[in-house]
Specification:
Blueprint lengths: L10 H16 L7 H6 L4 H8 L5 H4 L1 H8 L6 E5 L7 H4 L8 E6 L2 H8 L10 E5 L12 E7 L8 H11 E12 L16 H10 L2 E7 L5 E8 L2
Parallel strand pairs: 1-2, 1-4, 2-3, 4-5
Antiparallel strand pairs: 5-7, 6-7
Bound molecules: S-adenosylmethionine.
């Protein structure tokens, strides 16, 4: 395997964290400005703490997201852009005794922090993986669910990337995308840095996927499930 290279989080990665931090400090949610977005850029520890801010749960609804995914026992999940492991560690109890969650990120600090928590989960349940921005290094045909939250807009050459995701899917596998609506919101990056739901759908269609399911219960994000087109 080619040696993965680390890559700095782009400003809109930090923006989510900043918005969350502001939310908890001020007791109210605010979307990040461009200036705020740079503040946590070089502070992975604060960034991860903010991603894990309990105030996020109210709108991120992680338990509802996981319930909607109806994860089968023994599933292999790839959490791409895993960050602090906000979803990664919530997925683990749902994959059963034979399942596994791949925590994939391009930031050494994120993968290192997730790896440090390996002792807290069943041996074999968690596989942290430092990836390249253009390749998640999925095991070929090995993944039942690719999950990508607030990360799709960071990926370069996304149609080619989606084609790589397809190669990583097992029979019956799917890709779930959660990301901020491209409009003014009380949380997340400025609208100019968000991707419209329709553009995500177009990219996956261009890569040979079909939109199979859409969940609409999240207040600020779209939640789409794609399957390879037959
Ligand atoms: C906004 S955070 C979201 C973290 C996590 N998914 C969550 O919902 O809490 C985006 C994450 O994507 C990672 N990232 C950015 N570009 C990436 C890429 N090309 N491939 C994989 N991860 C990437 C960043 O390092 C960061 O940890």
């Amino acid at each position: 395997m080619t040696k993965p290279i680390a890559h700095r989080a782009c400003p809109c990665v930090a923006s989510v964290a900043i918005a969350l931090t502001f939310a908890s400090m001020a007791g109210a949610q605010t979307a990040a400005t461009h200036e705020q977005m740079h503040r946590l850029h070089n502070d992975p520890k604060a960034y991860m703490a903010a991603l894990d801010d309990p105030a996020r749960d109210a709108w991120q609804k992680p338990d509802d997201v996981i319930a909607a995914l109806a994860i089968p026992d023994g599933a292999a999940i790839a959490d791409i852009g895993a960050g602090s492991g906000y979803f990664t560690f919530r997925f683990i109890p749902h994959v059963g005794a034979r399942g596994r969650v791949y925590a994939i990120d391009v930031e050494v600090a994120m993968i290192s922090a997730i790896s440090q928590k390996m002792m807290s989960v069943r041996p074999g349940a968690l596989a942290p993986l430092l990836a390249r921005p253009d390749d998640p290094y999925l095991p070929a045909g090995g993944i039942d669910l690719v999950f990508i939250c607030d990360t799709w807009h960071h990926i370069p050459d996304r149609v080619a990337y989606a084609q790589k995701l397809k190669q990583g899917l097992a029979a019956g596998g799917r890709v779930a995308i959660v990301d901020f609506h491209a409009r003014d919101l009380p949380v997340g990056p400025p609208a100019s840095m968000k991707m419209a739901r329709e553009d995500v759908v177009k990219e996956f269609e261009a890569a040979g996927f079909t939109l199979a399911k859409e969940h609409t219960f999240l207040p600020h994000q779209y939640f789409l499930e794609f399957v390879p087109r037959r």
